[in-house]
Amino acid sequence: MPANTLDLVTELTLRRATPADLEGVLALLTRTAGWLNGLGVRQWPAGGFPAERIEPLIGAGVMYLLDDGSPAPAATIAVDGHADAEFWTPADRPGDALYVHKLAVSRTCSGQGLGEVLLDWAALRAAAHDRPYLRLDCAKDNARLQAYYRKAGFRHVRTVDLPHRASGALFERDASAAIPAAPSHQHTPVVPAQRSGHAVQAWRVLDITAHN
Known about the structure:
CATH topology: Aminopeptidase
């Protein structure tokens, strides 16, 4: 590494969101929704979500964020046992899975693997709760996002085409596949460096398995 290159490490901690985080979470979801809609993806409402959609997730303790100490989280994810009844039928055995909602990564941190880290952690959480699957739904017409989930270990179950829902592409992955041979509950450096000019920005995710 050249002498004039900086090695900058930002430590991110996975933690449950609290009511004090509501504003930051809403801001991240709004920015992400605007970005998606700018690409023509109708996954989320263009203006983001109202507080009454997110407050129950925080209150139930199922909304998590990656915190770097700044007001806005680096990423968010909600993981719970709620299976959308319009998508998942009794034949799918909804109780066999945990479900991912509101996964968003700040654009300043995009492309660095934070989404994959959170999905791996969510699968570990499903396995720890004796759920064989981790599931999610995403936009029916977003081939790029669907390819992203396939690369993250998900398989396409089916697409439910409802005229009033932009989402409907259903995916699941085996939770047990995420269990490492020697699980660590300490420091987990998992995210590659981002190079910009003479600076190298890396994120070290701490205690990623601590919330199982």
